[in-house]
Inverse folding.
């Protein structure tokens, strides 16, 4: 249980470390480092979505024969649809992070930063759910999910959360807030993840027959985040080399973890 608790907190740790950049950086994270981290996280999350979520979901439904793909397909479609609707309600993270601030009034600055914090917080909810579903499957799903699978997904999300924490705390500091206050606000945006993960575990323990759907739902949510948020931010201005290398490294790492430790 202690190992599982650690796994649930890893994504939150990524946000916290990203928010702590406000104590060490004057302006913002190095662009190349950010691209590499986003590409790496995208690779890990893509591989995890296939090997740690979709394939186990189909394995759990093997009693359906040739229709074993159906729960995975339904869950995946709902996961993508959920994030699509969420993006219609909240602004895109990369759009907010790179948008001009407009007139230099404090109201405009506060509004933009609060919108960014809200967007990051809401996007962290399905990511926390994904971690919770994987750990719940590890506890209740037999041999379909290994602890290494769950841990790898947590690490991938933590890497993605690192720049997210920075893009909240750094602007707050630029707007005149104390470093400690900027750090706390950035950290709080990630606090929802372990909470969402824990709630999902508690609920999943009551609906074990629906685990294949929940695993695929998490996969759909992860793939949507990769395509809609990580890749566009990492490949903006057609600077793709660092992102590609990072993606390949993350994908390869997840493959190694899945085979060697699974």
């Amino acid at each position: 249980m202690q190992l599982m608790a650690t796994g649930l907190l890893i994504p939150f740790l990524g946000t916290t470390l990203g928010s702590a950049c406000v104590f060490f950086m004057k302006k913002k994270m190095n662009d190349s480092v950010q691209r590499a981290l986003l590409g790496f996280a995208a690779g890990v999350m893509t591989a995890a979505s296939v090997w740690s979520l979709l394939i186990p979901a189909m394995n759990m439904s093997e009693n359906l024969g040739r229709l074993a793909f159906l729960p995975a397909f339904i869950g995946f479609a709902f996961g993508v649809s959920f994030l699509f609707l969420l993006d219609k309600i909240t602004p895109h993270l990369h759009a907010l992070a790179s948008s001009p601030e407009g007139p230099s009034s404090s109201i405009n600055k506060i509004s933009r930063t609060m919108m960014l914090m809200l967007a990051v917080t809401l996007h962290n909810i399905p990511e926390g759910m994904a971690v919770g579903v994987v750990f719940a499957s590890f506890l209740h799903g037999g041999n379909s999910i290994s602890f290494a699978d769950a841990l790898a997904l947590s690490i991938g999300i933590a890497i993605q959360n690192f720049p997210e924490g920075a893009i909240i705390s750094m602007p707050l500091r630029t707007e005149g807030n104390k470093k400690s206050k900027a750090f706390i606000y950035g950290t709080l945006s990630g606090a929802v993840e372990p909470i969402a993960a824990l709630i999902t575990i508690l609920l999943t323990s009551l609906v074990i027959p629906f685990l294949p759907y929940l695993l695929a739902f998490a996969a759909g949510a992860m793939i949507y985040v990769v395509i809609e948020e990580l890749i566009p931010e990492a490949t903006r201005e057609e600077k793709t080399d660092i992102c590609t290398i990072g993606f390949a490294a993350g994908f390869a790492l997840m493959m190694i973890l899945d085979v060697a430790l699974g």
User: Anything to note?
Assistant: The first helix runs from residue 2 to 19.
